[in-house]
Amino acid sequence: MNDFDDFHVEAEAAAFPVVGSHWQDSPADARVHYQNDRSIALYGDLGGMLLADLFTEVLKMSNFQSGQNGETLMQRLIQDGCIKSVTGTLSGKRVELFSSLQHNSEKIVQSTIIDVTGQFMDGLSGIPGRELFFDHLDIEVYRTLRDKSELHVCFMDLDGFKQTNDLYGHQAGDDVIKEVGRRLRTVVRRHETVARFGGDEFVILLSDPKVDSVCFAEKKLIPLLNEPYLGAGHTIDFIGASVGISSAPKDAKTPDDLINHADDAMYVAKSRGKNQAVVFERGMEGMKKH
């Protein structure tokens, strides 16, 4: 049995996704030559892909401004013999990457790519939490500025949620949050992101420059959230949504400012009577509660 056969047997028996790569003359030419079933199921067929390109793909959604790229990771791998715990994204999943040269062959690299998306999902609503949302927002702001495009953030707070908890208890409130998460998943497209920031705050990232964010909020989002809910056996028909909208690069050029301005506009929506959408304008800074 040769080195490849040994590697395949061990990788297929592994309880985690394994990608095997190999080169003949130069590490720069290393390509994926093997994946176990778990890896294919999670990330698709990567066969023939340059290992440096795979590293770049993992890095680009979260570390694009860190100075790291596939080539620098390859240099670390050859110099140190391993790469430990690089965080990134692959096939839309949040992942942790570990790579090492095989002890029995310096020309074989084992990469373990663990799907850790679930750790960054909101357990109650079933949608991404704050940290995973900021991962996506970071890269979308970068792309927007690079491509001279446009990006919209809709920051929403549920109206009537506190009343739900007060009248029917926290189980009813939890049921509402779960249903809001389910509904929001139906209103965004695959390349768009919806997340729960905590409590009764949610945010949607619209990365299509052609989208009319105000029309989206007023014609689709708010009416969808106004529909009755069933919470702890009670029909709840007084839930609304106050929505604040900000855009990059018009309103802000950083993720934090973009969120803060959308939050400011959301509080203006509440001050104007709730259950409506407001677009951020200069002078609204600091409107959000502290």
What do the pLDDT scores average to? 87
Separation, N- and C-terminal Cα atoms = 66 Å
CATH topology of the largest domain: Alpha-Beta Plaits
Indicate the CATH class of the largest domain: Alpha Beta
Helix tally equals 9
| Cross-sheet strand order for the largest sheet | 2-1-5-4-3
What percent of residues adopt helix (DSSP H or I)? 25-40%
Shape: elongated
CATH superfamily of the largest domain: Reverse transcriptase/Diguanylate cyclase domain
Q: What's the alpha carbon Rg, rounded to whole Å?
A: 23 Å
Structural class: alpha+beta
Low-confidence stretches: none
The largest pleated sheet is described as:
5 strands, antiparallel
